[in-house]
Structure formats: structure tokens, C-alpha cells
């Protein structure tokens, strides 16, 4: 199975942020990974990662319409570890 993730760009950053923080809202992810672009771009990126099965949207948040509480799937965590190994980085235990 091929996963359509941009390993050199924002997809890797989005997955790494969720791997570190365990969960975040769409708005929080936007502020961390791409604060200078429109939030719609971040939403599209996160939606694509959800479609790939790397993230889950647990629930919509009431504070920001269209924002979801996101968590990293096991597949996403495996992808992060593999990307770190490919880059010669040491993953956390």
C-alpha cells in the first residue's frame, strides 16, 4: 500500500506535531505548521492525511466552526518512525 504523504514538506511536520502532542485541534495545528497561509490550506492537508488513514478526527470543536480534534493513528506513528529512520534520526521510545 502506498501512502500519499509529502515526506519533505508540511505533511511530515503535521504528523510530527501530532506525534509529539498526541492531539490537537485543526486551529492549533494551523498555528503550528502553517500560520502564514489560509486555514483552508491546512484543513485540506489534514483532510488528506485523514483520508490516508494517518489521522483521526475525533469530534468537531464548538469553538471554531469546521475545526476537529485530531489524533495520530498507529499507521501515522509508524510512518513518522520510518521517516525518522530514513533521515537517520532516533525516534523516541
From TrEMBL:
Domain of life of the source: Bacteria
InterPro entries with a match to the protein in the record: Replic_Relax
Protein name in UniProt: Replication-relaxation family protein
Organism: Streptomyces rochei (Streptomyces parvullus)
Amino acid at each position: 500500500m502506498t501512502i500519499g504523504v509529502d515526506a519533505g514538506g508540511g505533511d511530515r511536520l503535521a504528523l510530527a506535531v501530532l506525534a509529539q502532542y498526541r492531539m490537537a485541534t485543526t486551529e492549533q495545528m494551523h498555528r503550528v505548521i502553517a500560520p502564514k497561509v489560509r486555514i483552508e490550506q491546512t484543513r485540506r492537508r489534514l483532510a488528506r492525511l485523514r483520508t490516508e488513514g494517518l489521522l483521526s478526527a475525533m469530534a468537531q470543536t464548538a469553538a471554531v466552526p469546521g475545526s476537529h480534534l485530531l489524533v495520530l493513528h498507529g499507521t501515522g506513528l509508524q510512518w513518522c518512525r520510518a521517516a525518522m529512520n530514513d533521515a537517520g534520526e532516533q525516534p523516541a521510545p
